[in-house]
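Section handout 9: paired folding examples.
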Amino acid sequence: MFIALLIWSCGKNKSPLAKETSHNYLIESTELAKVIDLPSTKILDFRSQELYSRSHILNAINISRKDIEDSSYPYSGVIPSKNQLEKLFSKLGIQTQDTIILYDDKGMCEAARLWWILQNYDFHNVRILNGGFESWQATNGRTSKVAPKFLASNFKLPDNPSMSCIVSNKDVLDAISANAVIIDTRTIEEFEGTYMKPGSKRAGRIPNSIHIDWALNINFDGDQKFKSRHEIEKNYAHLNLEESERIIVYCHSGVRSAHTTFVLAELLGFDNVKNYDGSWVEWSYDKDSPIEFDTF
């Protein structure tokens, strides 16, 4: 499929789909165990505060999705500003040169959101713990009930960030008219318009979008890790995508679609994947945005 549009790149150039990708942004529990005591290893826990207080990875700091949102918008889920993120990480004692490890208990969905945010701000020293907290427990990794103490730092992101993995609602409108590939990563009920999550103004989907649930890529019936490359490839094989195909993904508020961005860009090697940050909450909020929905 040929799209006569500007080709963007999310992060570094990816290797062709036929080759093995590097998986640089994934870390296994056994690998984390080797570096957990290094001062330059900072671990962020995206689970609920209740679960965190019961047990968490040693030295992990508990944060929430709200901590990495810009609350100035009339809807939730918008990417934080560079200044907001720098203030948060400085408050948490993260140094600019540190390696940030992210984990959750939701199939790495929350972790992938922050990974995606950091890609836009050109900070690449970040890893997602494959399998999350369950994977850590399965390897008898060290845990604690005590929140770590830390000194505030002066964390800085690179100047003039590329914002290389994000698109706006105008970009999506242009993509619709250009017949670009738009993937809806929500549940089938949300896609069909029979269910509307809180925060939405209207039910339905973006016109011409294709439904592929983000959760298909996670082994939820097993170790909670990403499925094999072969299994994941099968989820998208029917699209017959070229490695440089322009792909836009969206969900309700850009979290599940950030996960699919990681899958397509890092695990499968597509080099032109963009996440629509506002996603359905923004799209449905704007009464002029066109929508589709199924009728029964």
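Moving on to protein 2 of 2.
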Amino acid sequence: MAIKIVLLVVFFAVMVGVGIYSRKNATNVNDFVLGGRTVGPWLTAFAFGTSYFSSVVFVGYAGQFGWKYGLASTWIGLGNAFIGSLLAWLVLGRRTRVMTQKLDAKTMPEFFGKRFDSKALRVAGSAVAFVFLVPYTASIYNGLSRLFGMAFDIDYKVCLIVMALLTGVYVIVGGYMATALNDFIQGIIMLFGICAVIVAVLNGQGGFLNAVKELAAIPADDVAVPALQGGQGLLASFFGPDPLNLLGVIVLTSLGTWGLPQMVHKFYAIKDEKAVKTGTVVSTFFAIIISGGCYFLGGFGRLFDNPAIYNPDGSIAFDSIVPQMLSTLPDILIGIVIVLVLSASMSTLSSLVLTSSSTLTLDFLKESVAKNMSDKTQLIVMRVLVAAFIILSVVLALNPPTFIAQLMGISWGALAGAFLAPFMYGLYSKKITKAAVWASYIVGVGVTVSNMFLKFIASPINAGAITMILGLIVVPLVSLVTPKLKKEFVDEIFTCYDETVTVHKTHSLEE
């Protein structure tokens, strides 16, 4: 217990210290929200990676999908790395940085408002972002608290409040630069921690080969595919017992990052070309290790089948699987796990609360309530809203409506379903219309919310994946039949890509 407490105290002290150190870089709105667009390659890459993965992945998703799909759940981690990180950087990174600077856009709703010349789109986008970031934040608190309960036997509510206070302190004091510096520190902890945990857990099962052998002997008796019911070896197979639903999870958790405000926001703050290239490589490597490692570990969850992972009604408490896997580790490793998951979660939390407070202040209050709000007042309001957002998400987390993966599926489905298609198309095409953006908002939020009540798509995960794909289809179709923006207006925006720059021969062979 002493070891675990010492590790935590040191971790918290470093996080708060970084927040205080960074306060000089949070004196105006641009610095507080974007770090002055001067964030270097390694900080940007780690900020992207650590905002991607949290206790939701480590505790909720790894436990639930590792149980359902066995070792095939590792595909989710690889999808996160190559679709959610590598392709996201290649397709969105540079263009996002260039166009958002041209538009002087600090948030995703502000981008929509200025790119499509519509204040209404901006205000509506801020409402969607704020509302659906809350369940995601609550799911992170939920996962953290379960792990703390396992390690320290501390009351769930106490864990929630302590985590919320610490996150609030360094975000309010240091803004984006504090989150970026802390993300870098937390990312290093995550890389070493996940490797140590995987080795320790597999050693406890007689090594990797023995663990795979034992997993292969377990029948897949609760899969959605009737023909595969009871099949042995499926949990250790290449595509697992339910490939179609596995694909839905890969789409949601990988393609979803392309439309999440807190993820795309990292591209706004990129410093230069080197940051794009380094960030692409580093964030992909980071995702392979962290996400691939989490799902690989979760794939062995069925080897830890015991009464502790079941609810009173006999159903499986998916959020208890990973804590149960870790409960037999030595104290020093449990301490490392706590700091690992805490690092992953606090980095994501800080990104979420910063995104939500900035979008509510800049895109809602300043646009519709207090149009003459000064820079200093905006900064104060954002800091107050950081605290308000944290309180709201804690209230929801105290009585979460469903388990972690479902909360996150609802959040990601609505946000990415609403934002992904118009944002990506808006960076590349001059033909996208205002009506198409509204259509995407309606599809993303409408399908997600209606499915919460009507449940016409059984899994919120699959519902989220479907909303994203629908958005990618709906936006170009609606754009074909609705009035286009003024040609002069759009052409002026796209001049940002035509500017001539001079580069060294190491970057181009052009004479």
